[in-house]
Design goal:
Low-confidence stretches: 20-41
Strand content: 25-35%
Helix content: 25-40%
Distance between the termini: 47 Å
Largest sheet: 5 strands, parallel
Number of strands: 8
Amino acid sequence: MFKETVTAKGGSFLFLTFPIKKSKQKNMSIFSTLFGTSKEKSDTIEILDPSDFSEAISGKKVFLVDVRTPNEYGAGHIKNAINIDIFNAGNFERSFEKMPREEPVYLYCRSGARSQRAARKLVGMGFEKVYDLKGGYMRWR
């Protein structure tokens, strides 16, 4: 057993790591198991600040997705973004089903929480590279 202390806003947390058999990983903390912070996901999802995100989508044909609600999208969105609402789970999955998994996807929402959820879902569907706008549309403007 290994002990791991993580300091976060509001205090420190102690996590116990128990050796388990897992492909590519010998030890995995309960924290990473519960919250999906495995290396595989961090290698697949990249969070970009607004300037890097802008540079990545400018002048290129990319798959840019606003995962907010249709009302939020209608109130303003990044140019060339399509709206696929993360809260409409069935439509969300259908919209991505036929997309090539090796093509990068660029996501954003209002503040970054929903797009992180969407990014994890896409990784679970087999997408190889997902980019997320840090701070969401609020930081973009």
